[in-house]
């Protein structure tokens, strides 16, 4: 099986990865001084070109789908891989939405005049080169390019080998749109994906790549974190809990839990465990479990009638129509459980009690804490960001949904007239 | 030689490091909900206790100094290690200054009401557990504790073995001040320092330690970056350049260069290389070199009469009364040199030409860019932060001087009334 190629990646191997990353670095210096108008023009032109190139994209995607089906890939994975005219239209519209967003670059974050007259400003600048490692969905290729370009960054993309042909077709179109506007094609480069070595090279390209964002399962993320010398941003692993407090409105609890589990079980903001305050377990458990079961959810736990739970039921994401249920000793018990098993993504409390809600939101250590609302709201679009590159579950740099601003850094600029420092 | 001990660190080894880090993690959960008033009271009490405990601190420090002298340590290093009543007073005053600063915790960064009525806020929260690895100066022990505590973080300190007795004496006093105010003593823990294993354990305590800040030379920083699985913030390596543009006022150039090189040659914001525009080299070089030589600075470079320069002259910090001087082809030549050899700390241009100044500040990729001002201004106190834990030379999370806010993260909090998500 020959490796799918794109014009930037004829050969595989670490020389290629480093050469591509260096080319992206050079391009990033131009992007850093590119006007918003030019960036928007490229985004809109790329959107048009993707729609115009639909036939070529669908043909490339058909190759990927055929390979995946021949390899016996699960139908849900094949579905994530498959492009349709409608999905291609959605991808193009995503670029147009990013073009419509405000450009964060050049914003003055803060500033002051120092006593000696030095005029100091902290200005928002691009990060430089952003590496993104992701799985099957080809739309991420275009989304990541769009968000990176709008925030002035070059994108080094390492997609799934299963989507290699689709990604190559899309990246070719994006690179043409760049050169047509006199921007360097290397503002987006696609790494070879036929083996893991390109990931390793990417996360060790310190001094060339400014940040790597792994988008994928716990396995990919822990590999990246362990082996990277480039700064990374952890994303996406969400072992989210909903705590039903003694002060809960049980109708709200039932509605929120069913929504948070069943809306889209495969995404990171889905609820994986329900914690029920022992004080109301007698009355609260039955209606909640019945509502979940009515939606086809399997219940795991230690109580009678549940599928017996083991450590992995508390520690791992199901990402399916399964949920773990535990009776806990009030707020302290809930927070202790969350401290032990939570992944710092989204945690929710259901309560009408102000003190309980305040304490939960203050003490729980997570990117997002919901009071009487579905965990499904942790999402860049829902939060009003307009676009999202992932959901950070780490505390450094960015926490929660990451939009354009989260792909920027800052620079201090001081204008003077010969100031020197005495002490 | 027996390892110096502090009450929290009777034994060495990785069990101790992890146990201390875990204790700090537990303490951090209490600090996260501690009021500003209590934190300020602890800081002021610790300041008083350090002054009151001067005799014990000086005695411990005398041990360190005697050991260092017996080991033949350089006098400049012994000087950095040595405490005096005046320096102890300065350390205590530093804590009082931090107490007087505004507390960033709980500040609302942004917020909005979503269309469905969900009330969303992004609130500033502590990072949790901050690890700091540093060299001889014992004052860093107290400074780091103060900044960490005020920003709601527990501090895990790994000082130099040469300052072990001084650090143990200081940390004992800090821990007493905490317990006297009903806060956990483990809000500050001191790791064993007799070998490098405690550094390795600290930077691999993922999930317990939230960030490690290495303060020290390039060797320490590259070890930490290479081996860490905990997120780190690179600090302090400053190969800073001053570019004298064709449009420079030569009096300003001379004054700024002499100040940036000679004020304190051993610190990271000192100038290490002067780049002179070829267009004015004939007239500019002589007065600049004479002024530097009059201050005892040795000149390295490729021009006649200079000490011949090798690659390390351009790449490394001198941190001494030495400077490298190079003639470059205008602004492009200067930026190319800085892109190749700069460490992203501070870069300066001397020019009266607005276009040149604008282009330099826009294109140079560094934490701070100065126009007609000394590189020495890159400093938390000068920038008005009131306190500084280090100067970040990376782009992620914090760039430039790091004060209280740079030791925080954020948390999204959403208050609702049963909202669920449809699409």
Automatic annotation (TrEMBL), chains A, B:
Pfam families documented for this protein: Aldedh
GO biological process: L-proline biosynthetic process
Tagged with keyword Signal: no
GO molecular function: glutamate-5-semialdehyde dehydrogenase activity; NADP binding
Keyword hit for Cell division: no
Residues covered by the Aldehyde dehydrogenase domain: 6-295
EC numbers: 1.2.1.41
Stated name of the protein: Gamma-glutamyl phosphate reductase
